[in-house]
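User: Just a sanity check before I run the rest of the batch. Below are the structure tokens for the first item. I only need the designed sequence back.
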């Protein structure tokens, strides 16, 4: 079952964040992931978004998502995200298999 990682942060240094993004991308790809959403501009209709950047990464499984986050390759660039952002969160979400007959 697919898994997703939701990252929400307030980016305070665009230059360092660009370095993080460049360094993190190959680590995501090498673990079977792909970035589905990387939005700096949002339109909140209800509630509040606690960050100015939201990213959603899809992985083929929860195991692949956790392997990415714990990998030495990601650890080598992870500090750049801390340097470039303030308050934020990283959330692991398990995908949901919806039966084909639902919605017919």
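Assistant: Here's the designed sequence for the first item:
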């Amino acid at each position: 079952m697919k898994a997703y990682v939701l990252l929400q942060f307030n980016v305070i240094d665009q230059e360092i964040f660009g370095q993080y993004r460049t360094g993190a991308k190959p680590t995501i790809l090498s673990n079977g992931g792909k970035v589905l959403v990387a939005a700096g501009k949002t339109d909140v209709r209800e509630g509040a978004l606690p960050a100015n950047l939201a990213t959603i990464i899809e992985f083929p499984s929860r195991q692949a998502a956790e392997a990415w986050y714990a990998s030495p390759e990601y650890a080598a660039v992870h500090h750049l995200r801390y340097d470039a952002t303030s308050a934020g969160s990283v959330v692991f979400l398990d995908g949901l298999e919806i039966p084909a007959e639902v919605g017919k």
